[in-house]
Specification:
The chain is α/β, with parallel strands linked by helices and about 400 residues long. About 25% of the residues lie in helices and about 25% in strands.
């Protein structure tokens, strides 16, 4: 047994090279009021659990699990990207998992080891135990459990969504890679850059094999990536979209797009269940997460880009508030209004328009959009929350 442990440790030390990102700095200072939780399960991945529960959190609240990047720690991640602020203002219990140097000397989650990314095994099982413990401890809603991760944590987020689609209702993969992209250190290098290309069905099969016979529902997935990321190539975002649209049984052709603040373009991919995959591309951003400290969203530092509040959009995609950043009681500057270009059929499906006698009209303004079908494409600008106006184009 000792020999096996030594071999595993040696392999993990080599494996840290796969996501020991160039230039990562020391972790930020710890966030206050996080509770370290022990005894949450068998913890086969030997991870550390932190939890934050807002005062007066109601019963049946959601639970959000967040996963840090390499060399970061859980408390610093919560502060840097504004997660505690949003737990307070949007009413969810926050679980922050932490990798330890005994597992990986650079504190990377071991996303490239199948023993840590498969259902019922290693780190993936530890993460599932953390959220299960929290659902029981605070009386949370087991149908509203979500995960978000950055970089190595983003790659692990994709894997826990694959391993436990019956646990997680949705997830956000920020600067990560598709589940199953690598199963070794050597493979991890190619996954990060230039990326690995597979067919949508091949990527989807890597998810489905985790739960043979599972018929859904599958979690919704939001993909976030900077167009200038040289650490984890943007091609990984394309492959993630292929993977999760295939899992949901839809194609990788966007049903609509929107221009958002901070040079962000969002594309939506839908199925009979509505929008199931969202692809956020941040123009000119490198290996980072978009934040907006002036609007109460996160802090400046390593691996942040002061462009817009991604945490607001991530949580809004899960139905936890809207996309307006702002801290509690202060909506802040909403920035450039969101603009959506899509078919009239999609506008209706996504709540931006209504249909009467075969014709569509913008919600709020009532602007006439023309026939209700998949061929008539129009642009709508959300000038106020829930108020849409027809515009010439999204530019």
């Amino acid at each position: 047994m000792r020999a096996m442990n030594l071999l595993r440790r040696a392999g993990v030390l080599l494996g840290t090279l796969a996501l020991a990102f160039t230039g990562l700095s020391a972790a930020p200072a710890a966030a206050a009021d996080l509770e370290r939780v022990t005894g949450f399960g068998s913890n086969p991945g030997a991870l550390t659990m932190y939890r934050y529960v807002p005062d007066d959190l109601p019963a049946d609240a959601p639970v959000v699990l967040v996963l840090h990047g390499c060399t970061q720690d859980a408390p610093g991640f919560v502060t840097t990207y504004g997660w505690r602020t949003y737990a307070d203002s949007r009413g969810f219990a926050l679980v922050a998992a932490q990798q330890e140097t005994g597992n990986n000397s650079s504190r990377c989650f071991n996303w490239f080891q199948s023993g840590d990314t498969s259902r019922g095994r290693g780190e993936a099982l530890s993460l599932r135990q953390m959220v299960g413990h929290t659902v029981s401890a605070v009386g949370a809603d087991p149908s509203r459990v979500y995960v978000a991760g950055f970089s190595g944590g983003g790659a692990m987020a994709a894997s826990v969504l694959a391993a436990y689609p019956d646990v997680f209702a949705g997830g956000a993969v920020l600067a990560g890679v598709p589940h199953g992209c690598a199963t070794s250190m050597v493979g991890a290098f190619g996954c990060m850059n230039p990326g690995v290309s597979k067919t949508a069905a091949q990527w989807g099969d890597l998810v489905r094999v985790q739960n043979p016979g599972y018929g859904g529902p599958w979690p919704s997935v939001a993909v976030w990536h900077g167009t200038s990321d040289t650490t984890v190539a943007p091609a990984n975002a394309d492959e993630l979209v292929k993977q999760w649209t295939n899992v949901h049984g839809t194609d990788a052709t966007a049903d609509g797009s929107a221009s958002l603040p901070g040079g962000v373009t969002r594309k939506d991919y839908g199925s009979s269940a509505g929008t199931v995959v969202r692809d956020y591309r941040v123009s000119g951003m490198g290996h980072a997460v978009p934040v907006r400290p002036s609007e109460g969203c996160g802090t400046t530092g390593s691996y942040t880009a002061d462009l817009m509040c991604s945490t607001a959009y991530v949580t809004a995609d899960w139905g936890l508030g809207d996309a307006d950043p702002g801290d509690p009681g202060d909506p802040g500057d909403p920035g450039t209004p969101a603009c959506f270009t899509a078919s009239n059929y999609t506008h209706v499906q996504q709540g931006r328009a209504t249909v009467r006698y075969g014709y569509t009209y913008a919600v709020g303004s009532g602007d006439a959009l023309g026939l209700w079908n998949i061929y008539t494409v129009t642009s709508l600008t959300e000038t106020e929350p829930g108020w849409y106006e027809r515009t010439a184009s999204c530019s």
